[in-house]
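Record type: ASSEMBLY
Status: queued
Input:
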Amino acid sequence: MKHLPRALNRTLLFLCGLILIATGAGLLLLVWWKPAQEKFEQFTSQIERGYNQLYSQSLVDITGENPQDFSWLTIAWVTIAILAIILCLVWIFSQGGGKVKTINLFAHHPSENDQDGQISAQLGFVDDLLKDALEEDRWIAAVKTTAWEVKKRPGIYLSVIAYKGAELKHLKERVDQAISRMDEVLGNRIPLVVHVTTNWRTTFQSAQRVDNG
Amino acid sequence: MSISETEKMRLAKPQSGPFVKYLVRRETHSSRALPAIFLALLIIAGLIYLVIEAILWMSKQPALLATPTQMWEGIKQITDVHTQQIVIPVGIGLILLGLFFFAKALLPGRLSKHSIKDERAAFIVDDGVIASNMSRKIREAGSLPAGQVTTAVSKRAVDVTVVPTTGRSLDKTELLQNAKTMVNEVPLFPRPKADLKITQEGQVAK
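Status: finished
Output:
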């Protein structure tokens, strides 16, 4: 399914949350607790002294006109910040992906298929198969199929958009039949997610239709 | 083309599909993608501002808000009495924001979905679908007009509230039995418990 760095998200949210809480609590301590203020003043003056020393040691003449005007330290800070921005962008763009269009039916046995060739089905084929089996149902408004990679194997995500009040037991039985048919046709049980949901249209529309009986 | 023994065994096993448990877990729990993107954007915005200020300072241009030196001087003055009016709300804001991210990381992040126990596929149902199914069934069982039954579905409870039509009595036991049957006829996970409440005030028949 959609590739999401779940563990990374949790870890980074945990760490950043912890840092923010510690910083906020630290600020409040500095306002209300005298010993913390004294420690903070000692700490900042130590940092300032050390940084100034390092700064003067790392001065560099870049333009030649105004010697000893640039510090490598400032350039290093800017570089670190740009790298951190790139890492954050990588983090953002890693939230997603993994969509596939072709379903390799024996993709989990590459050693056999290296010699025998691969059998694959286009997503459209599976989509048609499931739509044929499900869309005529009175409780189903629409069916949407997407294919995703699941643990390096292609998998199918089947969204079943149900009408308001849809009979769950009936839906389950219909979908089970459709899945059995799909498995039979494909000759392989691929990873599958069935998501029964509604959308804004089905929330306000009823499944009632005119019966000719 | 030959099929391996494992594949033959897997196909012979009735109704079993791959990674079902793993997929159910993924689909019923949040990936925390939105708070992660929000946090990343906050960090990026802060860093871009700092980089711009640093570059302006290096190229001897006027600062947007404060030069790096002025920022450092500002940090040193946090303990001053005059800056306390700013430091206190900033501190509280940071703690609240931190708690938000902390909670997002530590809480289970369960989505408003239930799964239906199945060997072949990860069968996920929105709680809204379960609620509307229940409301319709109770409405039909009690011969009630639309809008008089509401259902709230949570992890372990399906609470049905019925507003009776004035002048018509409802059999609570029968309706509750209907609700329990509906919950039990589909193997939902986590299994919710059905409860039904009939309000004191009725609604005038239209």
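Annotation: Helices of chain B lie at 5-12, 20-28, 33-58, 68-76, 84-106, 127-141, 172-185.
Annotation: The mean pLDDT of chain B is 89.
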